[in-house]
Write a structure and sequence with these properties.
The protein is mostly helical and about 300 residues long. Helix content is about 80%, strand content about 0%.
Length: about 300
């Protein structure tokens, strides 16, 4: 069990490096997103071929997987764009409102009813985000900050859509097939946008782009898949909140993006609400599974 917990921990930490890598790469958000997804997809294909799982590669994943890949590209590129105008902490915390947003949408449109406790946790997360903004909702005179928050909101919407559409994909589509084709579809969505920039990429920049494809792309996804084979969903979901912690930590250590006491408390509220929601959801799933077994 310890090995799988470590896999989940490193998956979350590796996911959280994309912001810092994007800053050091010094290219457009579209370029960073394309190479993160394209290199990740290529490495996934190589992995499947070398491990004798070519049947997972040479299969039609379905239209839903490809559409979900578009949402994947959207939330990555908007997140990277947001960091050009607001802090990494603000961007990642708004992005991490996506799970609660998805829960609300699923409640009203997908028949996944929210309990009173879940609704309360959503309210706590929203209050935490208000604390991140230091309760300053006056957009006048905030210029670039408002634009950054808008891009982060777009990233959050795409991430919520990514979560919801993944629930609609048939179980017959293996998780490795799904991940590989989602990255490929996302890369193809970004290709024409990247080509419009016609950027000249230097040797050091290529190094960061390759790092984006290897670390937050292929390695993070592979480790997540390994962890999910054994760990309960609640445990994995809880450990996934190491990603925003990683982002906030890197922003502080590398770029001096410190948080005020109020913003730090808001971050803690958002992360805590997500952890509790993951634990509660995991317990509910286990209870429902036991009920099904009892009936059978």
């Amino acid at each position: 069990m310890g090995v799988y917990i470590l896999a989940a921990v490193f998956a979350a930490i590796f996911m959280g490096t994309i912001g810092a890598i994007a800053v050091y790469a010094g290219v457009s958000a579209e370029t960073v997103t394309f190479y993160r997804l394209f290199i990740g997809a290529v490495l996934m294909a190589v992995f499947l071929l070398l491990t004798g799982q070519k049947e997972k590669l040479f299969t039609w994943p379905g239209v839903k997987v490809l559409v979900t890949g578009g949402f994947l590209a959207g939330f990555v590129v908007f997140y990277v764009m947001a960091m050009g105008y607001t802090s990494m902490a603000n961007a990642i915390m708004l992005l991490y409102l996506a799970p609660v947003t998805a829960s609300v949408v699923a409640h009203f449109f997908m028949g996944e009813r929210l309990s009173g406790g879940s609704a309360a946790l959503i309210a706590v997360a929203l209050f935490g985000f208000a604390m991140m903004l230091e309760f300053n909702f006056n957009v006048s005179g905030r210029g670039e900050e408002v634009l950054g928050l808008f891009y982060a909101l777009c990233a959050m919407v795409c991430y919520a859509a990514f979560i919801l559409t993944n629930r609609l994909i048939h179980e017959r589509v293996h998780v490795l097939t799904r991940s590989g084709y989602q990255m490929l579809a996302g890369a193809l969505c970004m290709l024409p946008l990247m080509l419009q920039h016609n950027e000249s990429i230097g040797a050091s920049q290529w190094g960061w782009l390759v790092a984006a494809g290897v670390v937050p792309g292929f390695l993070a996804i592979m480790l997540a898949v390994v962890a999910l084979r054994t760990l309960p969903a609640a445990t994995f979901g809880t450990l996934a909140y190491l990603e925003p912690i990683t982002v906030v930590g890197l922003g502080w250590i590398l770029f001096g993006q410190s948080l005020s006491a109020l913003q730090l408390a808001g971050s803690v509220l958002i992360i805590a609400s997500g952890i509790v929601q993951a634990v509660v959801s995991g317990r509910r799933s286990r209870v429902e599974a036991l009920k099904v077994e009892a009936v059978a």
